[in-house]
Specification:
This protein has 2 domains: 3-81 and 201-212, Arc Repressor Mutant, subunit A; 87-199, Beta-Lactamase. The chain has 7 helices and 13 strands. The protein has helices at residues 3-10, 17-33, 50-62, 101-111, 154-158, 168-177, 187-203; strands at 44-45, 66-68, 74-77, 80-81, 87-91, 94-98, 115-120, 126-132, 135-136, 143-147, 164-165, 182-186, 211-212. Strand 7 and strand 8 (126-132) form a beta hairpin.
Length: 215
């Protein structure tokens, strides 16, 4: 599959500027604290009202692109989450989790930091990926399964399917058993793609300059 087709298969719908910025700011807060974040901590950019930020958050939540705790605090955004998942990221600021394997590689790549991804395949085979300055070391035949996206909530319907596999035949066999269409891509290729996507997404956090804290 050509690179353009791969990117199209992985791309999320283009956000409006405020939604993109809110999503990225929520990510940075969660990455920095490792704890659920109150909605008010996101803040409000100059020229906008708190209600505008709230609407952006609600839209992300309804689309399954943001997660919250029972009390309404933010727990996940742009692939990072403070709730345990299959994919543990050992980052310089501590242990965090990601919604899927691609998220983990993209997050490390965009942050440009060293650390480790501790994961497992859906068949409970352990996977460890060492990261040097955002780039994974050589992992031979290790791949990611990237199924085609459907119209349902991303976190619930798509992310649980994006996992590491020992090799491409294992990934596609698992997908075929479940009637999933998609592709398998190597760890380095996935890292390159994820790095581009997450770098662009995180840059949106700064597009409005300073934000006012509190509601």
């Amino acid at each position: 599959m050509a690179e353009a087709s791969r990117i199209a298969a992985l791309n999320t719908p283009e956000d409006d500027p405020l939604t993109a910025a809110v999503r990225a700011r929520a990510f940075l807060l969660l990455a920095g604290t490792g704890r659920p974040v109150p909605v008010s901590a996101v803040g409000t950019p100059e020229g906008w009202a708190p209600q505008d930020v709230r609407r952006a958050l609600d839209g992300l939540l309804q689309a399954g692109r943001l997660t919250v705790a029972d009390d309404g605090d933010l727990t996940g955004s742009l692939g990072i989450t403070v709730q345990p998942t299959r994919h543990l990221m050992v980052l310089p600021q501590g242990e965090r989790y990601s919604w899927c394997a691609l998220d983990a590689l993209g997050i490390f790549g965009a942050l440009g930091v060293s650390g480790q991804i501790r994961s497992s395949t859906p068949r409970d085979e352990p996977v460890t990926v060492d990261i040097d300055s955002g780039s994974p070391r050589d992992y031979g035949e290790l791949v990611l399964l990237v199924p085609e996206r459907k119209s349902g909530p991303v976190v619930q319907d798509w992310c649980p399917l994006v996992n590491f596999f020992a090799d491409a035949p294992s990934a596609m066999h698992w997908a075929d058993e479940r009637g999933l269409a998609g592709m398998s891509i190597g760890v380095h290729e996935a890292s390159d793609l994820g790095t581009r996507v997450w770098t662009k997404a995180l840059a949106q956090a700064h597009r409005f300059g300073d934000w006012r804290n509190g509601e």
